[in-house]
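Batch 3, record 17
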Amino acid sequence: MAEPGHAGPGPARPPVRPPVRPPLTARHARLTAAVLLALAAVVTSAVSLDVSLTAFTEGAEDVGNLIDRMLPARLDEPGRIVDLAVETLLIAVLGTVLATVLSVPLAFLAARNTGPGRLVRTGARGVITFCRAVPDLVFAVLLVRAMGIGVLPGVLALGLHSVGMLGKVFAEAIEDSDPGPREAARATGAGRLQELAAGVLPQVVPAWISLFVYRIDINLRTSVVLGFVGAGGIGFALQDALRGLVYDRALGIVVVILVIIAGMELLSIGLRRLLLTRPVAGRAAGATAPRDTVRVTAPWSRERIARFGSAALLAAVTVHGLFALEIDPREVFTSLDDIADMAGRMLPPDFTAVGGALTTALLETLAIGVVATAAGVVLSIPLGLLAAHPVAPHPLVYWGARATILGVRAIPELVLAIVFVAAIGLGPLAGAAALAVGSVGFLGKLVADAAEEIDPGPLEAVRAVGGGWWQRLSTAVVPQVVPSLVGSSLYLLDVNIRASTVLGIVGAGGVGFLLFEAVRTLNFAFAGGIVLLVFVVVIVVERCSGWLRRQVR
Amino acid sequence: MSPVITTRALTRRFGGTTALDDVGLTVGEGELTVLLGLSGSGKSTLLRCLNGLLPASSGEIEVLGVRVDRARPGELRALRTRVGFVFQQFHLVGRLSCLENVLVGGLGRLRGPRYGVPTYPRAMRREALDHLERVGLADRAFQRADTLSGGQQQRVAIARTLMQRPALLLADEPVASLDPENARVVMDLLVQVCLEERMTVVCTLHQVDLALGWADRLIGLRQGVKVLDRAAAGLDRDAVMGVYRQVAPDAGPVGDRHG
Ligand SMILES: Nc1ncnc2c1ncn2[C@@H]1O[C@H](COP(=O)(O)OP(=O)(O)OP(=O)(O)O)[C@@H](O)[C@H]1O
Ligand SMILES: [Mg+2]
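Prediction for the assembled complex:
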């Protein structure tokens, strides 16, 4: 018998057929395990929430009633509503500006390639993570308690929570920047700050602008519900109408909200186009400039005017906002005492005030997040893909899908939750349904953007071999969007778990109800315990999703 | 012998620029034709018009007996399965394994979408492995495509084309992003498989010496106008370099239009 591996001439053996199956690697095994685990989590969560379609069909009648009572929509005191709408917009802008101002230095301190040292870096990251892990409405509830009802707590809440996202992604943009220009700046003898400003800043600014615009969008959605907890804006009027069961007035307010959000969405699409499209190469204005005029500043090209105009507009809105909302920045410092006092009373945290109910509520919150994310993913993938040019078989399909996503995006989750609570009753199922529908607006857009940004090369290659629509989708588009799809879905899970912690405010289940009760009854130690738990859960989820994301890259 | 490619008065405009201006040419079976011309002269546009990736603005195109300019989408797809295309930037899906990228070349023979190597028939996987073997990359079959060097990636792309068993191969600067050594290896491979499979080839190249070495025939474009069309035999370097001369478009054509 020939020895295995025996080389050289020997007894003739049939040629060894190479394998035509991919070899099973450890990575595959880990991925499979992760997928199975995720499926198990979804099923367990769904069972624990008693998800059943009958709940929805039975709720149809209640929805019918509700819609009956909502129509026709009414706009009482239009002047006041418009004032509140403007206030809401200004809160969103000011909150985002505040977050940006705080995030830029934090990002430089937190980024691996610019942070001054390990200790500072870890500290900066800790601050960013903390801000992200505490939901904006929780910040708002706590700050309203400490500083009193008003607009300022709303702005601060949005600003602080947004630092959690902006600081993180700003830092990631810095870490992704090309080290070459920095080195070049250093080689000319530039100081440390000069080096960062000349070598890093120009590279990251486009990404930052896009993130800023994106965050204003998100914050606008939150700012319309800040009023529910007394932190200013149009949510106050909505809450009022819902409490009084004046549903036609509530619908009128919701319509106003949809209009501002849709307007903002259009504005942000326009801004992105204006600010982030690159000028066509080779057609730079300088190329045709007459030789005899020597300019020392860039010519006023369309791009430069757009940039300059947007910056001026933002500055004007910010200043106007400070005056219109009668915000005195000094107030932040004068109320630091109260904030510190309240924070002090949250320590040491107390987990025992309601016994086992806390664990139950926390698990319920997790289950809501998981189920909502799973349903959201299932709904968003087809819709998002159809809303991308490389996939949409027809412009009508494209615009239909885009419009659906935009429409859903315009409705804040809390408003959806109110509708579902009316339809299927108080409880976690209403919360899960609201978040699932809301997810479509969020994930559908990310899927569409990812599919728009794929490398068109493989698409053309599949077309060149005669591949059809389905084949192009499965071999050229899907493989390219999978990493970002997984990333966005996990991010959605993060977002939904955080959102599900505040759904309790309208009776849609989860730990939020306990939290708001604790704050309302001034049991700050228990509130501290809940905030700490939410914090831990969010961190754990983030870590897990980070690991998963690395596996599929 | 009927020609594999015939174009008449082929014109393609992009807004104000005319990328192809009244181009007429024929390519016979088994011929190895090289397209030359400055950057922006319309070479890629011509190749992409030939398999319908770009619709022509006007003019007639007939490829392998199919009127590309009039073909319905289904006919166009059927034609493309018989026409190989090699891209300068390879156009591999970086995240997928080499084998799966090669299998993409067989999509025209299958119906419906595929995702993942196991979704392709076993016989096809064998065939794909054989093609990878032929380009010398059998051992990389399950490695991600984006972990290969440029030359290796282009070889995977060639294996993908072989998977189509094409009658005609269009190659758009197949070696422009490769170093000279890899360029030679890839060109050798390309010409060798074309000879073995008796494929008709139209290839754009920037290296005049490579072109003179390989081609049966040279076609030159300048600003979308055909300015050279001759058998390579007996053509010298200077005559070819004329294609690259920056002259006014109304200057006479280099060489003889009827090759
Ligand atoms: N999709 C497009 N939109 C607008 N103009 C285009 C487009 N594709 C090509 N062109 C223009 O058509 C002309 C011919 O381009 P083409 O890519 O065919 O040139 P090429 O000879 O392949 O050049 P290179 O050697 O650089 O690849 C150029 O002027 C180019 O700017
Ligand atoms: Mg080209």
